[in-house]
Design a protein that fits this description.
This protein is of the alpha+beta class. It has a single domain, classed as Nucleoside diphosphate kinase-like domain (Alpha-Beta Plaits, 2-Layer Sandwich). It is built from eight helices and four strands, in the order βααβααβααβαα. The protein has a four-stranded antiparallel sheet. The longest helix is centred in the N-terminal third of the chain and has 11 residues. The radius of gyration is 15 Å and the shape is globular. The structure holds uridine-5'-diphosphate (UDP) and magnesium ion.
């Protein structure tokens, strides 16, 4: 049985500023990931304290939060077979100059502080992060005519 998962993606303010929202969303669509949730919204300091708690001791923490709040972000819930790992693969390594060519971060960015995309890094975190940013009624389960070709 295919392991269908949901994962959380944020298109960061640099993606919005650089008019890359469509190109980035398109990469996930082309893979066959299903958009279960999608919205433009403003992150709060409180949300970022939780979301980036693992980085709270870092010198760049305040700048990271400021960066993430300087425009709205696009939030997405993506669904697919082993979606958590597949989305991380498409996004690429945290440092865009170390990311594999063909990944979003390698192809469109150069600097770790402006690497365009957040993606959940484990199944456990994905579940918590989807809940953190999306209410139940903002997530949709629906059939697509292409499901049979993509999910097999
Ligand atoms: N970050 C940064 N400088 C660093 C490490 C991380 O600005 O030296 C930022 C970067 O935007 C990264 C985010 O903090 O995407 C979260 O870091 P994490 O280690 O969770 O990487 P990710 O899961 O985003 O690949
Ligand atoms: Mg992370």
């Amino acid at each position: 049985m295919a392991d269908i998962q949901r994962t959380l993606v944020l298109l960061k303010p640099d993606a919005l500023q650089r008019d890359l929202l469509g190109d980035i969303i398109s990469r996930f669509e082309r893979k066959g990931l299903k958009i279960a949730g999608l919205k433009l919204f403003q992150l709060s300091d409180e949300q970022l304290n939780v979301h980036y708690a693992h980085l709270s001791e870092k010198g760049f923490f305040a700048d990271l939060k400021k960066f993430m709040m300087h425009t709205p972000v696009v939030g997405m819930v993506l669904e697919g077979i082993e979606a958590v790992a597949e989305v991380r693969k498409i996004v690429g390594s945290t440092n865009p100059r170390e990311a594999d060519a063909g990944t979003i971060r390698a192809d469109f960015s150069m600097n770790v502080s402006s690497n365009l995309v957040h993606a959940s890094d484990s199944v456990e975190n994905a579940e918590a992060e989807v809940k953190r940013f999306f209410a139940d009624d903002q997530i949709f389960a629906y059939q697509k005519i292409t499901d049979q070709y993509i999910f097999g």
